[in-house]
Amino acid sequence: MPKIDFPEEVKILIAHLKRLPGVGPKSAERISVWLLGQEGGFGGDLADAVRRASGGVRACQVCGFFESSTVGCALCADEGRETSVICVVEQPTDVLPLERTGAFKGTYHCLGGRIAPLENVGPDDLRIDGLMGRLDAGGVRELILGVGSDVEGEATANYLAELLAARHPEVEVTRLAQGLPAGGGLDNADELTLYRALDGRRRI
Amino acid sequence: MPKIDFPEEVKILIAHLKRLPGVGPKSAERISVWLLGQEGGFGGDLADAVRRASGGVRACQVCGFFESSTVGCALCADEGRETSVICVVEQPTDVLPLERTGAFKGTYHCLGGRIAPLENVGPDDLRIDGLMGRLDAGGVRELILGVGSDVEGEATANYLAELLAARHPEVEVTRLAQGLPAGGGLDNADELTLYRALDGRRRI
Q: Which fold has domain B80-178?
């Protein structure tokens, strides 16, 4: 008796979906079967959306934010931004929550990751040369290190701070404040957060 | 200042991915950004896989299992199967674990769901007419109700059993055994499972 299994097309789809982050073999199977049951050409629409985004969007050569092949980089195209302040973030997605605060009018530089030796990510894998190029061109007054407050974020911040002190001592380097998150009580804060909140206390 | 957001292509991709089962807004964003970072044309491959599967695979008109436009339905094409026994399952995916047991040589009928009034799924939404057609054609000796043992599965089994008793009393209707799962101790079994295990006890 021949072995009964998914048709070849479905097996290939499952194999591809399984590679997506957060999608395991079971979810890949579930999504595939769900897709087969969709009416109205949703599968074709999804295929188009995947193709358009993955073919038409890449990292901006200057700042590392998303650059669409049709409209370019929205950040670099925005002439109202203060070019004297650069906020360095890990990923282009980190720009969006910062933008939502409405508190920052400067430009960004997306590194494309953070220094993480355990994941084999070193300084050369990040967009640091491009950042130095922007600083070498002059006109930058302040560099805000908007990287995460975890171990890898700290390592990245320290690495950049040392590099800047050596190559561009005229640029002021700052770091996002660390402390209690808004709405958080002391009972929910871990030791390190409390330590940093104490360390960074401000006169009111 | 213009609002900085994902490029349009990425927003459309996120909107599509969000509709997949088990994929929330955050996962959709994460998958999209991950896809943009993939080298080697993975996005295009994924788009192809989605298009081929959703365009080329549908439910077999006879048994409801997957039918590929290239090779047809693997179950209906298999001439070695006993056509006198039909196992009724909810979804085409339910066929695969049953096949893996190697214990069943008959044919299947995939209903495409189960009776679930709370989800607005009634008998008319299932592939029951097709099942009756197969029974009307004659030659079927036994119908195994291979639906789930939850409330909806029970409702579906009862509905089919009554229908069969009225229209095809010559067909023996059986149900998959319920009881302790393999390797499970009594301490882990819920009351209903234990009740059914007692009720269905067999002489050894």
A: Dna Topoisomerase Vi A Subunit; Chain: A, domain 2 (3.40.1360)
